[in-house]
Amino acid sequence: MATRFVLIQPSHAGNVGAAARALKVMGFDDLVLVQPRWEDVLALDETIERASGAVDVLRKARAVDTLEEALDGVTHVMGTVMTPRDFGPPTFTPREHLAAIAPAGHHVAFLFGSERYGMRNDDVYRCHAALRIPVAPDYGSLNLAAAIQVIAYEWRQALGGFDLPPPAPPVAADAAAVAGMLKHWEQALVEIGFLDPAAPKKLMPRLNQLFNRAQPTPEEIHILRGVAKSMAEAARKAKP
């Protein structure tokens, strides 16, 4: 779904770079700056450094003079606020509102105010909805880039999220490695007196089945052989 993030009068180059990074990790790349403090903010070293690899988002981003230009083509505008405005649009948490509008197919825009002043009332009144991130009641100050990351994450989740690849299954040690480890353990168990070689009963076959079920990896086989070695050495040292 077409998605735009609009920063109104951003004053810190680092926040612009961090915003680009926040967008890219959530799969968005439409960033517009309205009257940024620095005309060349998208090319500043601090901006590029804070983007941390999201330079393609910065290259595509643009600066405009008016909010009208930034909202060209947008059909649903949402402003981020700390406190609801009198006579302003209804205020929602991001999760409840974004889940409700995701199926509608809007071209959406998220507005973020200046680091210094937040969003002006006139800009909030332009919005169809205001979004308030639930924060601790005694400290609600969010860094601009952090707020963008939260909104970008919630919007991506509302759109269905990303499918994470399943973890690769561990590679089990082969039968020869398991057999060698069991032989090592058999010798160590004899050394410590736990296994009587004259009457072994079913101990080793049972251990064999245990490790077959566990399917130890080569690294785990190495650890188990180390344990067996340490047991045998400790038993030899303990003998008079």
UniProtKB/TrEMBL annotation:
- A Pfam family: SpoU_methylase
Q: Which SUPFAM superfamilies match?
A: alpha/beta knot
- Record keywords: rRNA-binding included? no
Where in the numbering of this chain does the tRNA/rRNA methyltransferase SpoU type domain appear?
4-153
* InterPro entries referenced in this protein's UniProt entry, alphabetically: Alpha/beta_knot_MTases (IPR029028), RNA_MeTrfase_TrmJ/LasT (IPR004384), SpoU_MeTrfase (IPR001537), tRNA_m1G_MTases_N (IPR029026)
Q: Which UniProt keywords apply?
A: Methyltransferase, S-adenosyl-L-methionine, Transferase
Q: Which GO terms describe its biological process?
A: tRNA nucleoside ribose methylation
MF terms from GO for this chain are: RNA binding; RNA methyltransferase activity
Which terms in the GO cellular component ontology are assigned?
cytosol
Q: Which domain of life does the protein's organism represent?
A: Bacteria
| Family of this protein | Belongs to the class IV-like SAM-binding methyltransferase superfamily. RNA methyltransferase TrmH family.
What this protein is called in its record is RNA methyltransferase
